[in-house]
Design brief:
Radius of gyration: 23 Å
Structural class: alpha/beta
CATH topology of the largest domain: Rossmann fold
Number of strands: 9
Shape: elongated
Strand order of the largest sheet: 3-4-5-2-6-1-7-8-9
CATH class of the largest domain: Alpha Beta
Number of helices: 11
CATH architecture of the largest domain: 3-Layer(aba) Sandwich
Number of domains: 2
Largest sheet: 9 strands, mixed
Helix content: 25-40%
CATH superfamily of the largest domain: P-loop containing nucleotide triphosphate hydrolases
Bound molecules: iron/sulfur cluster
Order of helices and strands: EHEHEHHEEHEHEHEHEHHH
Length: 294
């Protein structure tokens, strides 16, 4: 049975090329399970284009209250009791405001309140062809359990890797450094940070490196659109060498990347010899070397 190495691609904010890099790596690596942990805005499936759903399941969300208008006498007790202002003056509960605390349920003298378990989202295990698995999830609007859904998605990916004896799981992480990112990063073997040579990009890089250091995870850095600011590119390289981070590549600005997105393809499949593709193929080789040493 192979040891499972999980690697995660993250960025400080959306729009830095994270999903484009992940989709290209999905094309270049064979023998892997792909995962989209950006459950609030999943979009990797638009490029990986799975052929069929193999398994799927709803993910339980928080509890929600609901008032039965047939039983409600409009006495107002629940309205005064709700600390979350989830109940309207005409006694309808807003599911986006309700925190499921149960106060209205406990205090209603006419048993007019029901509490039910909500569904936060749905995860899918899919087949992208050649029997390769891709796991992703979709959160329902207004739900905020994305950290738990990320954990559920990663768990399904590990189950798939184990059952097929696959040693590599590649995760497209959510942007930022919040709870879903922490859920995406913990327990992985390698964090690949993609950033841009802008002041915000440098700041985001430092924050994510701080997070990866906290969990003692090896970190590698990629700079996207490196040619828009050579001065800041050098600053990022200096930061990497000072902090013992693997600088594994720089991707030039390339209009073919946007064309590939529009075409729903990875850049290496869309235009394999363009500047961005050549750079990403080098990055792929460096990641292979790092994984080989794990
Ligand atoms: S406490 Fe019960 S009966 Fe009174 S307003 Fe609320 S739901 Fe209606
Ligand atoms: S369950 Fe709590 S938050 Fe939801 S409506 Fe009732 S009192 Fe308000």
């Amino acid at each position: 049975m192979k040891k499972i190495n999980e690697i995660v691609i993250v960025s400080g904010k959306g729009g830095t090329g994270k999903t484009s890099l992940t989709a290209a790596l999905a094309s270049l690596f064979t023998g892997k399970v792909m995962v989209d942990c950006d459950v609030d805005a999943a979009n990797l499936h638009l490029i990986l284009n799975p052929e069929k759903v193999v398994r799927q399941s709803d993910f339980a969300g928080g509890k929600k209250a609901d008032i039965d208008p047939e039983l409600c006498t409009k006495c107002g007790i629940c309205l005064d009791a709700c600390r979350f202002e989830a109940i309207s003056p005409d006694f309808v509960i807003d599911p986006f405001m309700c925190e499921g605390c149960g106060a209205c349920f406990a205090l209603c003298p006419h048993c007019a309140v029901n509490i039910t378990e909500g569904t936060a989202g749905t995860w899918y295990v899919t087949d992208t062809g050649n029997n390769e698995r891709f796991v992703y999830a979709e959160m329902h609007p207004g739900e905020d359990n994305s950290g738990k859904l990320v954990s559920a998605v990663r768990n399904e990916a590990r189950i798939e890797a184990k059952s097929a004896d696959i040693g590599l799981v590649i995760i497209d992480g959510p942007p930022g450094i919040g709870c879903p990112v922490i859920s995406s990063v913990t327990g992985t073997k390698l964090v690949i940070v993609i950033t841009e040579p802008t002041p915000a990009g440098v700041h985001d890089l430092e924050r994510i490196v701080g997070l990866a250091n906290h969990f003692k995870i090896k970190t590698a850095v990629v700079v996207n659109k490196f040619d828009i600011n050579p001065g800041l590119l050098n600053k990022i390289k200096d930061y990497c060498s000072l902090n013992n981070l693997d600088f594994i590549g720089e991707i030039p600005f390339d209009s073919a990347v946007t064309e590939a997105q529009r075409a729903g393809k990875s850049i290496v499949d869309y235009k394999s010899e363009c500047g961005a593709s050549i750079a990403i193929k080098d990055i792929f080789k460096r990641i292979e070397l790092i994984i080989g040493d794990m």
